[in-house]
Amino acid sequence: MEKLLRSKVFVWTLLVLPGLWPLVPLLRQDPTVGADPLKYILHHLGFVACILLATVLSFTPLRVIFPKSKLALALNRHRRLVGVGAFVYAALHLATHLVYEGGFHVLASDVKKPFLLTGLIAFAILLVLAVTSLHRLVRALGAKHWKWLHRLAYVAAGLAAYHQAAARKLFPVQVLWIFIPLALLEIARIMIQLSSQRRAAK
Amino acid sequence: MNIRTPKDWELPEAAVTNESMYRLRNRRDFLRTLGAGLAGAALAPRGLFAATAGFPDKENPLYPAAALKPTAYEYITSYNNFYEFGTGKDDPAEYANKGWKTDPWTVELTGLIRSPGKFDVNDLVAKTGGIEQRVYRHRCVEAWSMVVPWDGFALAKLVALADPKPEAKYLKFTSFLDPKNAVGQQDSYLGWPYVEGLRMDEATNELAFIATGIYGKPIPNQNGAPLRLVTPWKYGFKGIKSIVKIEFTDKEPYNTWQRLAPNEYGFYANVNPKVDHPRWSQASERVIGAGLFAGRKDTLMFNGYEKQVAGLYKGLDLRKFF
């Protein structure tokens, strides 16, 4: 398992497959999807972006909580790849939104609505983080600045959770099972780090 | 000779594209239903036949053409909002057909009326004079739309049957409550049963309709069997499904979606491209069944029925009473 997870090809496959998933109901002519196929693709891409964002953010806490786990270590090799994957899905999601709504002009009205503004800000953050993931820029920024900048990913996750919840008439439960595990992992990680800091101070 | 002035919402039966042309699958089913329906016609009294099979009244007067292309039967019956059976668009088609019984069905007319009573749905159709077909635009508050060939009867006929007292100002509609068979009702978040309401003058407007069929067939469970409200100038959620009670009252009913989110959904819910939903625009809509590359269509004031209903709202601030 750990060997498999270390493999870049394996992770790439896991990242690309969800993007192809909409082909299944489209080819099967599922009438519920066929009724408005673009809406299905739009929601699906956003959903995958949220899952990947929550997934990549869980890597560090997993390593802190299970410092001896080779699995956690293997996962942490792919932080950049999965993070950029989340950005790519968010970009495809936004592009689909623009086609779905009929052009760039909708962005002007989008910024007035919290549901859409939160999505746009989350995307802007992911864009900055993806660009600053280039080797050259990581070096130029320096480790300390880079780390602070990339903590914005947590802001993006919070905004994405709100954005996803607001997309439906009623609160969709899937938001909880995507983001609650991440929140729990983060709480555990902070508690562990605080207690080890206290121990170091003694 | 009796010369009849055609109404704007009317459509000739000939202009309605044959439903079998639209269907992607199960065509044999349809033919079987058609056969059974024709066989039943010979035995059953006319009104009853219309109610049970949902077939359009053949004596319906000729309709002038309207530029509406009905949505495929398959989409109308598989892309549904019916939260009693789950919040996914595909949930109702699955879960409303797993043991939930819509036959026999009783509707209660009650409140400030002179002829209260409980009616079997077939008797009710017979008493209101049988079934006719109307092709209406259907606009969901989620900014998508369909065109549906409904079968049913004018709500005004039901109001006349109930014979309201002068103090009756509103109609309060209540849907069924059956958490055992309606999985969505096992969650209490929506506050079941579903409730909707209309002002008396809205209910007696010529457009207000009680549907018992789609495409000349009995209305499927997922679309609100055996009878539902259709108010084509309002957002779809006003069209309460599977009605069990209609109460005539002097108080404005507090409808389900208004109770859930009063800042997003009001009592009136008139289709209005100029008043946005707080989370999305209502200026345009996606047309169901138009395909992957179809663009959006501008949403029309009162969903294109301004001529028939604009008079009902003269002097009403539509931004405030959305």
Short description, anyone?
The complex is a heterodimer of chains A (202) and B (322). Chain A has 202 residues and is mainly alpha-helical.
Task: Give your account of this protein's structure.
The complex is a heterodimer of chains A (202) and B (322). Chain A is mostly helical. Chain A is built from 13 helices and no strands. Chain A has helices spanning 2-6, 8-20, 23-27, 31-34, 37-65, 70-76, 79-101, 106-110, 114-131, 135-141, 143-150, 152-166, 174-201. The longest helix of chain A has 29 residues, at 37-65. Chain A is globular. The model of chain A has no long low-confidence stretch (mean pLDDT 92). By secondary structure, chain B is an alpha+beta fold. In chain B, 20% of the residues lie in helices and 20% in strands. In chain B, strands 3, 4, 7, 8, 9, 11 and 12 form a seven-stranded mixed sheet that branches. In chain B, β7 and β8 (217-218) form a beta hairpin. The radius of gyration of chain B is 19 Å and the shape is globular. In chain B, 47% of the residues are buried. Residues 12-56 and 58-65 of chain B have low confidence and may be disordered. The interface between A and B is medium-sized, with 24 and 30 residues.
SSE map:
The complex is a heterodimer of chains A (202) and B (322).
Chain A: H1 2-6, H2 8-20, H3 23-27, H4 31-34, H5 37-65, H6 70-76, H7 79-101, H8 106-110, H9 114-131, H10 135-141, H11 143-150, H12 152-166, H13 174-201
Helix pairs in contact in A: 2-7, 5-6, 5-7, 5-12, 5-13, 7-9, 9-12
Chain B: H1 19-22, H2 27-43, H3 46-53, H4 73-76, H5 91-95, E1 106-111, E2 117-120, H6 121-127, E3 132-139, E4 144-154, H7 155-162, E5 170-175, E6 195-199, H8 200-203, E7 209-214, E8 217-218, E9 228-230, E10 243-249, H9 256-260, E11 284-287, E12 296-298, H10 306-309
Parallel strand pairs in B: 1-10, 4-11
Antiparallel strand pairs in B: 1-2, 3-4, 4-7, 5-6, 5-10, 7-8, 7-9, 11-12
Catalogue the unreliable spans of chain B.
12-56, 58-65
Number of helices of chain B: 10
**What percentage of amino acids of chain B are in beta strands?**
15-25%
What is the strand content of chain A? under 5%
Sheet/helix structural class of chain B:
alpha+beta
Output mean pLDDT of chain B. 84
Low-confidence stretches of chain A: none
Tell me the helix content of chain A: over 70%
Write down how many β-strands of chain A occur, each being a DSSP E stretch of 2 or more residues. Answer: 0
What is the helix/strand order of chain B?
A: HHHHHEEHEEHEEHEEEEHEEH
- Sheet having the most strands of chain B: 7 strands, mixed
Rounded to the nearest angstrom, the radius of gyration of chain B is 19 Å
Per DSSP, the total helix count of chain A is: 13
Percentage of residues in helical conformation of chain B? 10-25%
**N- to C-terminal distance of chain B:** 45 Å
Give the quaternary arrangement of the chains.
heterodimer
Largest sheet of chain A: none
Overall mean pLDDT of chain A: 92
The largest chain-to-chain contact, stated as pair and per-chain residue counts, equals: A-B, 24 and 30 residues
- Radius of gyration computed on alpha carbons of chain A: 18 Å
Q: Which class of secondary structure composition applies to the elements of chain A?
A: mainly alpha
